Amino acid sequence: MADLPELIDGLPNICGQEPSIEQAIKAGQSKTLSQSPGAIDFGSIRAACAIALHQHQPLIPAGGDDLHTAAIISNLKYMMDHQDIGDNYNAPAFVWCYKRMGEFIPQLIHEGKSPRVMLEYSGTLLYGLRQMGEHHVLDALKGMTMNPDYHWAVEWLGMPWGHAVAPSTPVQDYRLHVKAFQHHFAALFGTEALERVRGFSPSEMALPNHPDVAYEFVKTLNDCGFQWVLVQEHSVEQTDNGWHPQRPHLPHRLVCTNSKGETASIIALVKTQGSDTKLVAQMQPWYEAQSLQRWELAGKQVPPLVTQIADGENGGVMMNEFPDKFFEAARNASGSDVPLMNGSEYLEHLFAMGIKESDFTEIRPVQQGKLWAQMQPGDGPEKLAKVIEELKQSDHQFHMDGASWTNDLSWVKGYDNVLGPMEEASSVFHEKVLKPKTPTDDPNYRNALYHLMASQTSCYRYWGQGLWTDYGREICRRVTEIVKHDFG
Fold first, then answer.
1. DSSP character for 239?
2. What is the pLDDT of residues 212-233, one digit of tens each?
3. In the chain, what percentage of residues exceed pLDDT 90?
4. What is the 3-state secondary structure (H, E, C) of 133-170?
5. Band of pLDDT at residue 198, cut at 50, 70 and 90
6. Integer Cα distance of 160 and 75 in angstroms
7. Which of 16, 100, 207, 347 pairs with 36 at a CA distance of 20 to 30 A?
8. Cβ proximity of 404 and 206 under 8 Å
């Protein structure tokens, strides 16, 4: 398959090659992951550990003094250029963090070890690194991702291109983010690497719990060819009894039914233990895995998998202590009965034992049990809206904003001044660009989509008030202006 261009008219390749992308994803589904020198003897291990590193930098309108005309640049570039402000002196260390797995994995493999890591980099970060001229970072990532000597140890996870949070991003836009990431990833690392992208990591671990949004979320992942999704244990409940997952170290089946009665499901790997970056930085999941034995699943004894994700650059522990701890754990885990594994590799081994997806415990997003006690799937969206309102009145613990990994943080409440402009930008894009079925390879479509996705980065919700809100509102303003100018 011909290489896809990484940049088109100076923008990242985020749309327009849908047939090539779909072909690569389909090809990947019929292939097993490459057996490697670091292959695991699954029959003899007790347990395993999977770690994922999440890396993100938003794009911000800060390339100049006037907010209305400032170029959109990476927040990382802004940090680099203004190291005297706040924590911006961390910028060079961040760049090193984004690059270093591209050096650690080959080094460990050359030592004869069997390292593993799952990586999740936002499209805005990858584009920002290219825009800044940090080509050495992308070259290191490419070397590890595209070279068969190393790529068996690295699993890239899909994500929404602009780091949008699923509960509060319009469902049709979220789908565009997911597809845009697949485009951009294939353009950077090749379609053969895209064939191996099977797991999905939702930004901020935010899983929508509104039945109609949750259904669309899973349907999007199904339609885009993903095999599994990472979920936070506090954002799901067991369908049979409403409890949190009782065996979080085994795969589950996330089943989402909407108010019309339609159902979509996908395998879920459960991320445990909050979101403390120190846990992964000190390789705590591997030490936890060492305390476990095989568990019974569908009449067979299988090794549990301790799964954890954390920011790969934030915090002194991750910046400074992680390299030594990762090397130490990877060296000790190699060839032991508690190895490091990646998610798709683990699932492939389970299926090879004859275990089926239907053997996994069924879960759904939290709070949905309360809803279905009051209504039936198929009762429709009006009935659902009524039941949600009634439950909000009668149960102070009930919420329908979608669960995020901060658990106490609503993604919607208190952010009206940003959501207003975001919803307006999304609505204008939908009316003038999507509805008329503008070809996705149209340069105007790409430009509008790029701005729309940049405006939906979680940071514009997450930081609440002040400069970040101004950034978010400004990019939304540009989306609306661009669409009205280019699409009439």
1. T
2. 999 999 999 999 999 999 999 9
3. 82
4. CCHHHHHHHHHHHHCCCCHHHEEECECCCCCCCHHHCC
5. very high
6. 18
7. 100
8. yes
- 420-440 average pLDDT score: 91
Whole-angstrom distance, CA of residue 484 vs CA of residue 479: 9
- Element of type H or E holding 118: strand 117-121
- CA angle (459 as vertex; 443, 207 as ends), nearest 5: 95
Mean pLDDT of the chain: 92
> Any idea which residue has 């390339």 for tokens?
63
Return the pLDDT at 277. 77
Is 388 a residue whose pLDDT tops 60?
yes
- Residue 74 is given by DSSP the state E
Q: Are strands 154-156 and 199-200 parallel, antiparallel or unpaired?
A: unpaired
- Alpha-carbon gap, residue 390 to 371, rounded angstroms: 10
What are the two backbone dihedrals, phi and then psi, of residue 305, each rounded to the nearest 5 degrees? -120, 115
| Cα separation, 62 vs 131, whole angstroms | 14
**Residue 85 neighbours by CB distance under 10 Å:** 10
Report the DSSP pairing between strands 117-121 and 154-156.
parallel
pLDDT recorded at residue 406: 35
**For the chain, how are helix, strand and coil distributed in percent, rounded to 5?**
50, 15, 35
Quote the pLDDT of residue 411. Answer: 43
Which region, left, alpha or beta, applies to residue 283 given φ > 0 means left and ψ of -120 to 50 means alpha?
left
Distances 478 to 112, 129, 296, 446, 473 between C-alpha atoms, Å: 52, 23, 55, 14, 9
Which helix H or strand E contains 228, and what residues bound it? strand 228-232
Q: Which residues contact 252 (CB under 8 A, 6 or more apart)?
A: 231, 236, 245, 267, 268, 269, 270, 360, 361, 362, 363
